[in-house]
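Aim 2 progress. For Alpha-ribazole phosphatase, the working sequence is reproduced below.
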Amino acid sequence: MNIYLLRHGETESNSKKVYYGKLDVELNQKGKAQSEAAGSKLKEIKFNKVYTSTMKRAVQTAQIAVKNKECEFIKDKRINEMNLGVFEGKNYEENQRDYPEEWKRWTEDWKSYAPPKGESYIEFYNKIKGFIEDIIKQNDEDILIVTHGGVIKSIYAYILGENLDLFWKFGTKNGDLTLIKYEYGNFYIDSIVHCEE
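Predicted structure tokens for this construct:
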């Protein structure tokens, strides 16, 4: 099984470097160009299914990148970006200033602590784990998952032995394309490509 992971293209929130997960924003022009660039690398692949989060930025990226409308498109909220609650829409300095106690607790216990009105990383990770475990039961040959940076890094952590600390050992840029292979009950990362616009 070939599992392609595509991080959505850039949004204005990305360019402003604010924290956002549940905020439902659209791609900017650069993000649309990144999606086109990813699509050029995927044009020869006949996907059995294309999974996206329910967020506009992921759906738009999938629609631009995948020209073959014959494949099945499935939205799944389990691969939405992490809900950061009151931290959403603010940058690093603003969150430290506006929520000093909550920020301190989050940075000291990033796995278990949920920001007010948000979710903990463990809650977020468990949804993604369930999604991937359902995917591999489908036994499709080629699937595309268009999602978010936090989701992709969590998938890496899962396939590399459920080591949640590995979340911080990977970068992921807007428009990045990863190929993960699942063969004989094992995962491995085959490639990670930056799809520049």
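Residues 125 and 141 are 25 Å apart (CA to CA). This observation will guide construct design in the next reporting period.
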